[in-house]
Amino acid sequence: MEIDISKLAQNAIDTISEQIKNLKRLNIIVAGKTGVGKSTLINSVFRDNLAETGIGKPVTSHMRKLTKKNVPLTIYDTRGFELGKDVQTEVKNEILDTIRKSLASRDVNDPIHCIWYCINTASNRIEPHELEWLRELSNENQITQVPIIIVLTQSFSKKKAEELKKMLLDENLDIIQVVPVLAEDYEIDDIGTIKSYGLDTLIHVMEEALPDELMDTLQNVQIASLKSKKLKAQAVVATASLAAVGEGAAPIPLTDCVMLIPTQITMIASITVIFGFDVNKSIITALLSSTIGTGGATVLGKTVVATLMKLIPGVGTIAGGAISAGTAGVITAALGEAYIGVMELVFKGEMSIDDLSTEKGKKTMASIFKEKMKTIDISAFKKSK
Ligand SMILES: Nc1nc2c(ncn2[C@@H]2O[C@H](COP(=O)(O)OP(=O)(O)O)[C@@H](O)[C@H]2O)c(=O)[nH]1
Ligand SMILES: [Mg+2]
Questions:
Q1: Check: CATH 3.90.1640.10 for 32-221?
Q2: pLDDT tens-digit series, residues 285-321
Q3: What pLDDT sits at residue 83?
Q4: How far is the C-alpha of 229 from the C-alpha of 218, rounded, in Å?
Q5: CB distance 35 to ligand 1 below 6 Å
Q6: C-alpha dist (Å) from residue 133 to 28, 84, 88, 295
Q7: Cα–ligand 2 centroid distance for 354 (angstroms)
Q8: Is any atom of ligand 1 closer than 6 Å to the C-beta of 80?
Q9: 34 in contact with ligand 1, CB cutoff 6 A
Q10: For the chain, which residues make up each domain, given as ranges?
Q11: pTM here?
């Protein structure tokens, strides 16, 4: 049985769209004085330069909504915090009001999930009224219980940031964490550059704070932690490989290999959503043809599987014209790992997303795939009886 790769790729693209459509929107309020580094932070943590799309849409006197097409994220950016006590009280009431309204909404995409309150580590020490404001906000948030994270921005002095963090934690505010960050590298004349740091920690704190149903969205929109994306993607591959083992447990005749394919398509789609890249059909076609298609236009036909099996040490030939559980597991895991491998290269800027459908991209995918086929331990997928 032979399957058209172009049709499979279309199937994958449709699955990706479906999964993206099903992502719940993540909604975050970002507050703090003008100039502390809110916009810089937002653009460093999330994809697509959300904070550079203009001024956003006003939702209250001091809050604007930042959104971008195809990004399941809303940032409520607050302004005017530095204008004095009266405005600060207004800002606080607007934040609490927005939260209450969002929680009362029937739309599952409306609720505010988190507040980031930004304090500039580099500026002078935190003023008593700012602490008082935070205390009032967290007190009034007792009912709504939206997690508050204090982000210490522009923390190029790690020592100063740690002191400030300790001081804030000692205040016993109802907040979940204080996270020092340097969103962008910081250059000091004649001394050198301080590398950005802390954004991955902010992502980890978010992973702890947000409900499970928002984990896929968080990975899709964040660009601050490759490690988080990879861990999530590897979990997807592990699940898919085990599912393939289950499906191959019979063992299944080669003519029925088509049974395995939905598992692998779903896996590819999930990894794409986690990385948040705009992947098109030609990229998926390149991936499938250079790996499980072994260069041809069809996939998992008899000869293809025979070729693939030669790559797995100790498997060699097809026993009785059937694909074993272990083989199905290894092929699935290798395909998933190869795809994660190229997504990682794109994330690091070592390859562009368009490179993936070129000869160079295909070669890279094929070589990672072959390597994984050789090194993944097939015994991990042996049926346990
Ligand atoms: N090097 C560096 N500059 C920063 C950082 N965060 C903020 N800035 C600078 O501080 C200024 C104010 O930042 P901005 O993000 O516009 O603050 P906002 O008013 O809170 O949105 C800008 O000139 C930024 O370039 C950072 O992490 N590293
Ligand atoms: Mg700004």
A1: no
A2: 999 888 877 655 555 555 556 666 667 766 655 555 5
A3: 81
A4: 9
A5: yes
A6: 19, 12, 8, 63
A7: 32
A8: no
A9: yes
A10: 3-19+225-381, 32-221
A11: 0.92
